[in-house]
Amino acid sequence: MDNKFKFRKHITYATEKCTKLIYSLSKSAKITWGLRHEVLKTIYKGAILPLLLYGAPVWIDALKYTCDRRKYIIGQRMINLRIAKAFCTTSNEALCIVADTTPILLKIEEAVRIYNLKKGRENQTHAVEKEVEIKYW
What we know:
Blueprint: H1 8-26, H2 37-53, H3 56-59, H4 66-84, H5 92-99, H6 104-119
Helix pairs in contact: 1-2, 1-4, 2-4, 4-5
């Protein structure tokens, strides 16, 4: 944590750690061969997303800075390119749709809202949407 409580060091550390993980996955997830998108999506949800969301209720205010938001968007874009098996010229919004992932900024806000609801810090009249498996519909 830096002396001005901007959480830049934490954001840089988290995104660099995820970037290293994504680059190591890139060796086995090429466009025409390698790991399937289901496997990559599971790795994203189980390993990368928790790294990016760690401590989000504390540093959520740091996302008011464009450079911090951009780091998270670039990190998600890298894994979305592998999940969607798309070329690097594809837009970030299209990648989120094709890879069937929620944009990272919305995911961070959702995690903070769920945390605040669990801790009783937010009005519980707002519904929070969560992914529900088909068997529980």
